[in-house]
Structure formats: C-alpha cells, structure tokens
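User: Hi! I have a protein structure encoded as tokens and I'd like to know what sequence might fold into it. I'm fairly new to this, so please keep things simple.
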C-alpha cells in the first residue's frame, strides 16, 4: 500500500471512529488553571463543528464562558481495542462559542440533538440553565496505534504523518 492510499485508509478509520461515538470527552480549564474533564453528548455539522448542550450547573460550562477554548477526545472503547497502551483516538483543540437562543443555528442544532438523542433534549431545552456551545476544531491529532500518529487537517479531514513510524526509519 502506498503512502497516499494508507493515509486515505487512515482518514476513513478516523471518520468511522468519530461517527461511532455519541459522546465526546471534554477538557476545559478552570479559572485557577486546573484542568477539568467531563463528557457530553454531541452532534456534528457538515463543517466539522461539534455542538454540545450543557447545564450552567456543570463546572465545564463556567469554564467555557471564562476561557472559550477546549479539547475534545474520542477514543476507541477498551472492549474492542487490541492494546490498551495504544488505543485509537482523536483529539481536537477547539475554539468555543456560546450560541444565542435566537440564532438560527440554535434551533437547527437543538433539532439535530433531539433527532439523535430523543425527547430528553426537548425537556432540557425548556430549562434556562442549558446552553448550546459550538466547538470549532482548530487543530487535531489522530493516533491509530503505536508509531501511527497523524495531524488532522480540520478543514477537509485529511491526514499527514505526525512522525515516521519506527518501521520506516533507517
């Protein structure tokens, strides 16, 4: 397999990983700079932006208002991973925007969330403490296994080798 077809196959595997997940792991920074890790159900639009609907009562919501940057992670479940030291994973560093309730995007993405997760979204939508955030990837990394790390082009989903595998080095 040549490098181009290998990268194309890896890009397909990355897309499969992303579409196989319904929640993302969310890393935010508190006002004290201490990392905060959580998770949230999400939907993704055609441009690759992730949307989460989270409560103001959760620590990560205040973190996002204070510091509108986050990292999100998708990782292959342990039960289907060959090696727990090299689980398949994708990490995106994102800029974050709180979507106003009167923005057209708000209604569109809430409907997408409701279509994905059911009537619970309609119930949560009626609560004033829930906010819709858009997480726009600015950079990304994909690890397919040992020596298989790639930079993700967040505009088109293509991959480039982060570093050469030990198999290819001389």
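Assistant: Happy to help. Inverse folding works backwards from shape to sequence: for each of the 170 positions I chose a residue that suits the local structure. Here it is:
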């Amino acid at each position: 397999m040549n490098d181009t077809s290998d990268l194309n196959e890896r890009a397909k595997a990355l897309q499969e990983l992303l579409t196989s997940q319904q929640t993302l792991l969310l890393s935010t920074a508190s006002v004290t700079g201490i990392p905060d890790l959580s998770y949230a159900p999400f939907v993704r639009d055609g441009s690759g932006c992730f949307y989460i609907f989270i409560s103001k009562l959760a620590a990560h919501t205040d973190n996002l208002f204070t510091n509108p940057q986050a990292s999100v992670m998708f990782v292959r479940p342990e039960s289907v991973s060959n090696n727990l030291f090299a689980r398949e994973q994708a990490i995106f560093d994102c800029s974050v925007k709180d979507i106003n309730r009167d923005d057209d995007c708000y209604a569109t993405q809430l409907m997408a969330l409701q279509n994905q997760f059911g009537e619970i979204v309609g119930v949560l939508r009626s609560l004033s403490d829930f906010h819709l955030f858009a997480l726009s990837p600015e950079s990304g990394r994909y690890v397919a296994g040992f020596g298989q790390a790639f930079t993700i082009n967040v505009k088109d989903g293509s991959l480039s080798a982060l570093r050469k595998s030990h198999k290819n080095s001389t």
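A useful reference point when you look it over: The chain has one domain: 3-161. Feel free to ask if any position seems puzzling.
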